[in-house]
Amino acid sequence: MEYIRAFLVGGLICMLVQILMDKTKMMPGRIMVLLVVSGSVLGFLGVYEPFAEWAGAGATVPLLGFGNTLWKGVVKAMAEDGVLGIFKGGFTASAVGISGALVFGYLGAIIFRPGMKE
What we know:
- It is built from 6 helices and no strands.
- By secondary structure, it is mostly helical.
- The protein is globular.
């Protein structure tokens, strides 16, 4: 049942984003920023954690989850380092995910040799 919930929630999030892309003139970059900020705001309001526990990877993998990870990192760093944590926390919390994306993206580029379409 956990897999089905994750699939449905992740699919619902993707469906809503696709509707946003199709029905508005928002560019994909702005929609991505909207998702990250929404995840941060939902984390601030205390809504995201119970939702993520219920939905599993369907809620933590999309960009909403990334925004929540940034928020949690900032809160933790502020508790440890004060105001300096605002600048440090997001980087510390998301460093592994960003590094993984860069490494695997680079490996994919080496293996598949992407090129410009003509």
